[in-house]
Amino acid sequence: MIVYQNTKSDFINDVMNGIIADKIEEEFEKHHIPHSQRGEYRAWANSLHFMKDVLDDDEIGDDCELAVEYQIPLTAKRVDFLISGSDENGKNNVVIVELKQWEDSKETSRPDVVYTFTGGSNRFVTHPSYQAYSYAKIIENFNESIAKYDISLYPCAYLHNYNEKNRSHIDNNFYNEAIKIAPIFLQRDAMKLRAFIKRFIKKRGGIDILMKIENGKLKPTKSLQDAIYSMLEGNQEFFLIDEQKVAFEIIKSKVKESLKIASKPENENGKFTIVIKGGPGTGKSVVAIQLLVDLIKNKYAACYVTKNSAPRNVYFEKLSGKKYTQKYIKSLFLSSGAFVASPLNQFDCLICDEAHRLNAKSGMFKNMGENQIKEIIHSSKVSVFFIDEDQRVTASDIGTVDEIIKWAKLENSTLIMDDALNLVSQFRCSGSDGYLAFLDNLLDLRETANYEFDFDYDLRLFASPSKMREELRKLNNNNKARMIAGYCYNWITQKNPNSDEYDINLEDDFHAKWNFNNTSTWAIDEDSFEEVGCIHTSQGLEFDYVGVIIGKDLRFENDKLICDYTQRAKTDKSLHGVRKFQNWQEVAKQIIKNTYKVLLSRGQKGCFIYCEDKELLKHISEMTKKDIIY
Question: Residue 261: is it exposed, middle or buried by C-beta count within 10 angstroms (0-12/13-18/19+)?
Answer without folding.
Answer: middle
